[in-house]
Specification:
Chain lengths: 479, 479
Amino acid sequence: MARNIASREKDYSQWYLDVIKAAELADYAPVRGCMIIRPDGYALWESIQKHFDEAFKDTGHVNAYFPLLIPISFLEKEAEHVEGFAPECAVVTHAGGEELEEPLVIRPTSETVIGHMYSKWVQSWRDLPILINQWCNVMRWEKRSRLFLRTSEFLWQEGHTAHATREEAVEETLKMLDIYRDIMENILALPVLAGEKSEGERFPGADNTYACETMMSDRKALQAGTSHFLGQNFAKAFDISFQNRDGELEHAWTTSWGVSTRLIGAIVMTHSDDDGLVIPPRVAPVKVVVLPISPDRDLVDSKLMPKSSEIAETLNAILGKRSVKVDTRFHMRPGDRFFANIQKGIPLRLELGEKEYQREVFQAVRRDNGERFDIPWDQAAVKVPEILEDIQHNLYNRALEFRKQNTFKAGNFEEFKDIFAGKGGFVEAFFAGGKEEEKLIKEETGATVRCFPLEREETGTCFFTGKPGAKLAVFAKSY
Amino acid sequence: MARNIASREKDYSQWYLDVIKAAELADYAPVRGCMIIRPDGYALWESIQKHFDEAFKDTGHVNAYFPLLIPISFLEKEAEHVEGFAPECAVVTHAGGEELEEPLVIRPTSETVIGHMYSKWVQSWRDLPILINQWCNVMRWEKRSRLFLRTSEFLWQEGHTAHATREEAVEETLKMLDIYRDIMENILALPVLAGEKSEGERFPGADNTYACETMMSDRKALQAGTSHFLGQNFAKAFDISFQNRDGELEHAWTTSWGVSTRLIGAIVMTHSDDDGLVIPPRVAPVKVVVLPISPDRDLVDSKLMPKSSEIAETLNAILGKRSVKVDTRFHMRPGDRFFANIQKGIPLRLELGEKEYQREVFQAVRRDNGERFDIPWDQAAVKVPEILEDIQHNLYNRALEFRKQNTFKAGNFEEFKDIFAGKGGFVEAFFAGGKEEEKLIKEETGATVRCFPLEREETGTCFFTGKPGAKLAVFAKSY
């Protein structure tokens, strides 16, 4: 176990921060509640972005950029929206040496200013749908911050679409939820429960909110992405209206959806261990590190380095530019070099010392399970990509198995309370309560409805109210 | 000439805004001085970003993210810096429903907060160099804004590096200047004068500022990118110090360099014409538009559309995903469809009507010179990339020729004044004046020293002060 990382069992919160620190993913900023995303953390974010961005574009979405500052009066146009966000806003009162006539808030989300622009861009049904996404920073003031999970400023994408019909907007909401699920599962190796949020957890101003919920290794849930069906609420507040094919004026139907740098927190808390960070290969910026190791500097220069550079070049051509790194920190002790790469979460290490050189092999070490084995030089180009895929699947399956083992059923509140009095986890229960019942359950157990999973259509008697025909809900404590 | 675009000759400012509006690149935001970058403008920015980002990474730089908000006290640590930027800052005084103890400014640039972090990350010479870049939004409050050229919020990249020696930092400053010049010339087709700025135009807090200066089609100069050698100014203000190889404590040497969404303005004002936007092919998000055209809907569905999709697919595989678009706006009149694509600046149009279909050709139309010619179907995969390259070179050469024809020499102030009393342009003159002389020249002519070009080492008698041994400067009116 690493001396610079707390044990997961003993202190999960400290372990989380230690893993991030040891991997140099992020630092707290001098401004309270804000963070600095360090180069290795940012490279991970760029890799995450690339996968989502490509999927958005493949489904006809385009990127744009809307302003950072929003007049307070815009927020006030949608009653639930301002109630939800105004308390968290950072407010600009002065600029250019003068007091502003109207204070401006730093965007906590952009439905309002985007709604304002859409009302100008949309006149006819031919102008619809608008399928725009924005990658940007947003600000929601936090008293208690936590790197990646809850910071005053964070990076995200926010999709904002407008449609001619309710049906099309609902379809878009669910399509984006499914794109999120797909990338989270297949690229980030996060098993996802995709479902509808309860009334109490809805986005301020939405008719329905859907979310991807994932289980962290402390059995708590993390909401990893949300997709909102906004009905005509924002279209009415900002007058996004259009002439339909029959020449009649109608309000548009809108959606919004987002994922953020929070996903880095999800990766950390799903896959990492007491030795530090573990990154799934498909999203890892550096997938392989090659370590030439020898106290004999001549051997290093004449043989180990040339061979290391050669395999790096070969693998980069297969895995993508800059996917393979050669570690040249010869001033460090070998053990420290191993550890530095382990803590960075690099999926596969290829060691090359004198013995390996003579036998024309690399000694490979998998980050996910610590397994060591030889890979002959002439098989590396084939074997390495295979092993990386195997690591990817192993990480996903391990997380899925963990979720299964920590998912329970509760038929009544006693059973429910017992689970959360113990280790907790995900609890499946039929539930027909509203905001009030959710509040009572949370007060007594700390758990909330994470979602009503989309793929589970069975109904039954509500574990809390006893009402029949209740939908299946999944409860958990959450981040 | 387009009815929705003013003539360049008659009203250059209006022409510029009309071109941007017709191409749907950007809109003014509801917040004064801010802009919305619309999807086609943002796609152009993404394409610009991709080229710069790749060049930064190829030279060992990594991306990171630093916070949006900076304590005012940080700016105050570097005297010239705060003097230069404080008057332009937007200030957050309230957040989370409370008044802040210390007001925070929205970053106008990030030397200060990055300096603060570097002081924590750097201990030994082994921690150097730090080669970090950040892509982000910044804010400098503007009273008179102009889309892309001067807006309160804009997008940019800011590179911030720290080095163990002065020599290495100077080398970095000039290396990044040269990377800027290379991409501007070879990708954006902007002929560049790269050189050192005069004392009066230096970045607040820099020892030396270098810039890439380009000539717009109204003969004014636009500063398209800058690279600053910051000496030890910020290292001393923020205590970025390290133990050198001899165990002694030294301050680091830092640089910073940036290009912004201003480059979109440079593209517009260098290449566009009275019909609207012209984008050089290498940076154009959409390089080719295919237009199936016929009033006969059956012909469109059965023959023109399948053939259009086929060529789009073939060319996308060669030119890059989404480089080729098929225009399916059959509800518009053919003339309007031509015009819509012309105004978007798409380098090459391939028209496919009944006649072309029968002859198995596309009618190609170049955006740069309006030339029309046939391309047989079976030659398109070879010809189209060749024509795009020819357009690229033609745009660059045309801009370079324009600059040459509008560059003059002045031996004394009378000659100098005559030039700027006329059409203006770039004026080469030996100059040994300081801030005071620069001010006088500007007051009388509107022109300023754009730079002392690096490649011109000749010296002569100063046209203004009569001093001998003066360096060659290039003067112009500027944006």
